[in-house]
Amino acid sequence: MFLALREIKYSKLRFLLIGIIMILITWLVFLISGLANGLSSENASSFQNIEATHFIVQPNADKKLSRSRISEDKWAEIQKLSSPGGVTPFGQKMLSIVKQGTDHKIDIAVFATDANGFLAPDVIEGKKLRNDAKNEVVVDQSLSEKGIHIGDWIQDPDTDQKWQVVGFTRGQMYSHSPVVFMNLHDWQTIAMRQTAETTTYYNAISVRMDSSQINVLQSKVKDIDIISKEDALQNIPGYKEEQSTLNMMMVFLFVIASFVQAVFFYVITLQKTSMYGVLKAIGANTAKLTRSLVVQMLFIIALVIMCSIGLSYGAQALISPSVPFQLEIGTMVLFSGLFFVVSIIGSLLSLYQILKIDAVEAIGRVD
Amino acid sequence: MSGKVVLENISKWYGEGDTFVKAVDQVSLHVNKGEFIAIMGPSGSGKSTLLSIMGALLSPSEGRFLLDNQDVTKLTKNEMAQVRLEKIGFIFQSSNLVSFLSVRDQLLLVSKLAGKKEKEAKQKSDQLLERMGLFHRRNYYPEQLSGGEKQRVAIARAWMNDPELILADEPTASLDSKRGRDIVEMIAKEVKLRGKSAIMVTHDERVLDLCDRVWKIKDGQLSEHVTAHV
């Protein structure tokens, strides 16, 4: 501590510069992680919040709900074999709609489900979804930013189908679009009109069961694939690609940050070789010098992380709400921990230098 | 009479076969309490190797080195570091102060390394700096000091843990003759005052009169030198 802190105090500028670089890098990591979180929730909050444990899809649908078709007959078969309330059909379609009376198109995701089933949305404003009502929808509240309010009618300009918005729900986004919930009756008109099929279909059957029940179902019903909620989430169009791009950026930033720090400490350790020689000569053992270096490093990284977290929350407050940005405490803690780990690994290079220094060098020359 | 510092038939060699070099050859030396001796020799004579052995920095290939009745030659590296910390005070050629520590912290570092109490260390460092005429400079950094002042700080640092032996490696090398003489006088005075031993390796003949005995080293062999001064 004695040496570590006094050196930082003496070489303020040097440590300030490296500190700023480290702060910028860690800040960027936190910003990207915030963006990744934000995008992931904008992309798929409906699936992150969903109460299903699994989805039953068509085997050749490549785990993609949009490609999967479950017929009415199959649904009846599954329903017979499952406990009541454990399964509910799920229809999903991407649509472009307009608010009636305007011609500005808005992309939405239609989710069709049993209004009494476990996929039915919690309403934060207005009325709940009902099975016996016609052409009523509950929509994600982000549509209110687009000028759609309770009581408004929305329509599909291609088919002129119309629905009335009766309630708002929250945290229901799918593939970057707000979700519009409708009952299964209204779904039939969409499913049948927009495809050549004559009978209705569902994209999937949502399941809320434990794994033993799942295994039973899988063995008894032919031609179905049961995928986990996580699988379904990863296979939302663009989700995996988006997240893996951002994750790759963060991995690179971690590598860069650890190298920048390791090189910095390596160079200043090299510069101090003669000083370490003298300190060893006057009786400092390697353990004490190592402790000094590690304390210095941890002190700096702790300050850096605190500053970056502060800046990240500052940025969150300043960024406009329309930007998908969301900081999560769990992720921040994880990344801060990772930064500590990479900086300790980075310090090994410098530790090796300290170990190598021979106290005899302090004498100047050895004959 | 057995002294504070006893070297018995110390030899140090490097390499094998064609590269075999005997840096120190059968050196025996006694330094008593309160005695200040000088070792002179041209470069390549083995005096730095000898100094390194006496400083518990190098283990001799052969022979015994007793410091304050403790056999230093049989110690591990960490034990040697401990001996250096507690029993030996070094004064290096170019003071070798830690650039980012203030004058006072240079001294406190030594007691900190030895795990001594801070309050006592502060009193002690202030006393030492007072005696070296450096008290007014206690918050200065090495770069703000003159060469003589730096060397005085180095002397104060060497005394900080109350060592039995002071080793000075050409302490006057970077100083003019007046300042060089002042520095050596200071070492001599402290040695007498505290009843400790000091060994100085030097080229500087002008300060030999301040030493009790002068030895010459040539090709690794030590011999007592008789000068008009002594």
UniProtKB/TrEMBL annotation, chain A:
GO terms for cellular component: plasma membrane. The keyword Cell membrane applies. The keyword Transmembrane applies. It is a multi-pass membrane protein. InterPro entries: ABC-4/HrtB_transporter, ABC3_permease_C, MacB_PCD. The chain crosses the membrane at residues 15-36, 246-268, 289-313, 333-355. Pfam families: FtsX (PF02687), MacB_PCD (PF12704). Keywords: Cell membrane, Membrane, Transmembrane, Transmembrane helix, Transport. It is found in: Cell membrane. Residues 21-213 form the MacB-like periplasmic core domain. Residues 248-358 form the ABC3 transporter permease C-terminal domain. Part of the ABC transporter complex hrt involved in hemin import. Responsible for the translocation of the substrate across the membrane. The complex is composed of two ATP-binding proteins (HrtA), two transmembrane proteins (HrtB) and a solute-binding protein. Belongs to the ABC-4 integral membrane protein family. HrtB subfamily. PANTHER family: ABC TRANSPORTER, MEMBRANE PROTEIN, HEMIN TRANSPORT SYSTEM PERMEASE PROTEIN HRTB-RELATED. This is Putative hemin transport system permease protein HrtB. It comes from Baia soyae.
From TrEMBL, chain B:
Its main location: membrane. GO terms for molecular function: ATP binding; ATP hydrolysis activity; transmembrane transporter activity. Residues 5-230 form the ABC transporter domain. The keyword Nucleotide-binding applies. This is Putative hemin import ATP-binding protein HrtA. Keywords: ATP-binding, Cell membrane, Membrane, Nucleotide-binding, Transport. It comes from Baia soyae. Transmembrane segments: none annotated. PROSITE patterns: ABC_TRANSPORTER_1, ABC_TRANSPORTER_2. GO terms for cellular component: membrane protein complex; plasma membrane. Part of the ABC transporter complex hrt involved in hemin import. Responsible for energy coupling to the transport system. It is found in: Cell membrane. Pfam families: ABC_tran. It is a peripheral membrane protein. Belongs to the ABC transporter superfamily. HrtA family. The complex is composed of two ATP-binding proteins (HrtA), two transmembrane proteins (HrtB) and a solute-binding protein. The keyword Membrane applies.
